[in-house]
Amino acid sequence: MIATTQLNRLSAKSAFYVGFPIALLFSAVTILTLFFAPAEINVSVPDDHVLYFWVGFLALIPMISGYFLWKSGKKIKYYLDQDYSTLQSSFYFTARVNFRIFLWLAFIIVTAGALYNWQLNQFSQIEYTQTAIALSVMAATLFITTIIGTFTTGLLTVQIVKIIITSAKADLSLNEYAM
Predict the structure, then answer these.
(1) Is 31 a member of any domain?
(2) Which residues, in sequence order, are CB contacts of 43 under 8 Å at separation 6+?
(3) Domain assignment present for 178
(4) How confident is the model over 126-173, as pLDDT tens digits?
(5) Of 52, 72, 151, 169, whose CB neighbour count within 10 A is largest?
């Protein structure tokens, strides 16, 4: 039987190849939203100076997304081995990736706001309220994207991984039978 680590790599590679273009699109939309958002939406931002902090952190989002896709992709094989349905595996995979990415974005919001306010030596209730509102909107977005992603990209990824693992196992068993 093919080694579990090889199947895990196939699973991770498939998740990466399917999900990374979508992660790049998500990163581009996030960056554009931050540059063109009205001042009321910008978190802890009385003016546009904080965007320098945002850009520094947002440059890492595609790399972090790729890493999370790779790590979470390895779990797809586990979900399938545990006889979870394809839809259930898709939900777990999507929730795992989205939760980690949104944690990273929450870290960016809080850190960028704190660094900016620390630079100005100003901390007010308005910035905390704006940060809380942004994090609440992000939590709602996390829920919505997890549900939508479960039925779209996550399902596609799990189906592809399932096909690849099945064919890899079949190829190996044919090779063993031929010997």
Answers:
(1) yes
(2) 109, 112, 113, 127, 130, 131, 133, 134
(3) no
(4) 667 777 777 888 888 889 989 998 999 999 999 999 998 888 877 766
(5) 72
